[in-house]
Specification:
The chain has one domain. It is built from 7 helices and no strands. By secondary structure, it is mainly α.
Length: about 100
């Protein structure tokens, strides 16, 4: 899934009737060592998602800070950079489907 923001996961999990144990499970700490991403990411996923959507739409850093606060913007931008290797994997499902030479 591409562009599924964290703040949308809880409503989706509810819609799909996923077990509470799965929904409330702590994030894997190996994703970004030392970070428990349940609340540490900008205080809330809603705010972090606002920053991410703003970045995606080309909203300036100044406007993002005015809207979300400097702490949320700085932390979210730092996490985007730290997680870049995970998003830029050479393997993607889309590439596999579109490139018949892989099969």
């Amino acid at each position: 899934m591409n562009k599924l923001y964290r703040s949308k996961l809880y409503p989706l999990a509810s819609y799909l009737h996923l077990p509470k144990e799965l929904v409330d499970k702590a994030a894997d700490p190996d994703i970004i060592p030392g970070l428990d991403d349940k609340e540490e990411i900008s205080g809330s996923f809603v705010k972090a998602d606002r920053v991410l959507i703003g970045l995606e739409k080309g909203v300036s850093r100044k406007e993002l800070i005015q809207s979300c606060g400097i702490e949320a913007v700085d932390l979210t931008m730092r996490l985007v950079e730290l997680s870049r290797p995970m998003r830029e994997s050479s393997y993607t499902i889309e590439k596999d489907i579109q490139d018949p030479s892989i099969h």
